[in-house]
TrEMBL record:
Protein name: dTDP-glucose 4,6-dehydratase
Gene: rfbB
EC number assigned by the record: 4.2.1.46
Gene source species: Mucilaginibacter rubeus
BP term (GO), one: nucleotide-sugar metabolic process
Pfam families (UniProt xref): GDP_Man_Dehyd
Family in the record: Belongs to the NAD(P)-dependent epimerase/dehydratase family. dTDP-glucose dehydratase subfamily.
Length: 351
């Protein structure tokens, strides 16, 4: 079946993997990548598919109502896969309003336009909202987040994502629109902007710069290979029942300090350094305000209902990720020049 899909945030980390997957796997679909190209958006992430006949890039802001209306009128999409967001917790602590604007207001703009544009054919259209496990708050030492866990966000980022999730459900329940939500754990892989833990640590170790560990490094995250996430989105988009929610995770919990030590050891080998050399860069810094202790996803529903399981192990994924950053020096240099230098020059003080 031919479909036109607007993918928002397609120039970002996860979005670029989703766009690539849909463009390559579904030659009959038309994929429109709508992205504002903030500091986190980068068309270099999509160089390999930019000339494909079923792909088109449109620069624009989801907060701009008039623009979103015009885009829907011009493209007449059958579906939206919504990834555009401000995505970094530390930046949300410094600048919460940006997160309310893009993550809440931007999402409601898209929903509203879709509601009007798709009136009378909600059964033939779909609004897929990509969200995070951070909406569930924090876990103690035990337990996992399921789709039934109550929302309890703590950071301005997770509060804004929780708000957007509630609006998506409200549009399903109030207007009868077809919506689907997935809540995913921390992703890692290629094209990840080096403000997040794994790419930041790889970059800093490579450059012989301090690797900042917040607090004691005892916080736990559940890491998921980004291409496994893109595959889960594909499976859910095509098979989920209207109004359903799925958690996506890799069953792969790591204490931050253990993960950073592992990266140091991998990079010692790859960079020809003596074992233990890179670990000397580990620097404990002031903890993040409101730092959630532990995230862990129970992805049983996705496995049982739609057959999705992670495709690769963390060892394989981390090795591939480190190799990718070492092989793509130009990409890394480009994204860490200019604004990035300014942002991180007074680093560790904003939390
Ligand atoms: P990212 O920061 O790498 O990319 C976000 C993209 O959105 C960028 O290309 C940016 O230019 C675009 N964007 C931002 N504001 C916009 C606006 N107003 N209008 C149009 N485009 C805009 O983020 P990511 O890590 O790829 O995350 C993608 C989605 O997945 C987000 O919704 C995020 O909340 C969610 N998520 C991310 C993770 C993770 O580990 N990275 C985990 C779970 C969920
Ligand atoms: P991050 O990659 O920002 O993702 P999130 O906050 O959305 O989980 O951070 C992952 C974990 O790593 C989190 O516990 C905070 C910690 N962290 C550090 O210790 N040092 C860093 O420089 C960064 C960016 C994160």
């Amino acid at each position: 079946m031919k479909k036109k899909i607007i993918i928002t945030g397609g120039a970002g980390f996860i979005g670029s993997h989703v766009v690539r997957r849909f463009v390559k796997n579904y030659p009959d679909y038309s994929i429109v990548n709508l992205d504002k190209l903030t500091y986190a958006g980068n068309l270099a992430n999509l160089k390999d598919i930019e000339n494909e006949p079923n792909y088109k890039f449109v620069k624009g802001d989801i907060v701009d109502i008039a623009f979103i209306n015009e885009l829907f009128a011009a493209e007449n999409p059958d579906a939206v896969i919504h990834l555009a967001a401000e995505s970094h917790v530390d930046r949300s602590i410094t600048n919460p309003l940006d997160f309310v604007m893009t993550n809440v207001v931007g999402t409601v703009n898209l929903l509203n336009t879709a509601r009007e544009h798709w009136k009378g054919r909600y059964d033939k259209t779909r609004f897929y909202h990509v969200s995070t496990d951070e909406v569930y708050g924090t876990l103690g030492e035990d337990g996992m987040f399921t789709e039934e866990t109550a929302y309890d966000p703590h950071s301005p980022y997770s509060a804004s994502k929780a708000g957007s999730d509630h609006f998506v459900r409200a549009y399903q329940d109030t207007y009868g629109m077809d919506t689907v939500i997935s809540n995913c754990s921390n992703n890692y892989g290629s094209f990840h902007f080096p403000e997040k833990l794994i790419p930041l640590a790889i970059n800093n170790i490579k450059q012989n710069r301090p690797v900042p560990v917040y607090g004691k490094g005892e916080n736990i995250r559940d890491w998921l290979w980004v291409e496994d996430h893109a595959r889960a989105i594909d499976v859910i988009f095509h098979n989920a029942k209207s109004g359903s929610t799925y958690n996506i995770g890799g069953h792969n919990e790591w204490k931050n300090i253990d993960l950073i030590r592992l990266l140091c050891s991998i990079l010692d080998k790859k960079l020809g350094r003596a074992e233990g050399e890179s670990a000397k860069l580990i620097t404990f810094v002031t903890d993040r305000a409101g730092h959630d202790l532990r995230y862990a996803i129970d992805a049983t529903k996705l496995k049982n209902e739609l057959g999705w399981v992670p495709g690769i192990t963390f060892e394989e994924g981390l090795e591939k990720t480190v190799d990718w950053y070492l092989a793509n020096e130009e990409w890394l240099n480009d994204v860490t020049s200019g604004h990035y230098q300014q942002y991180y020059s007074g680093q560790y003080n904003d939390r």
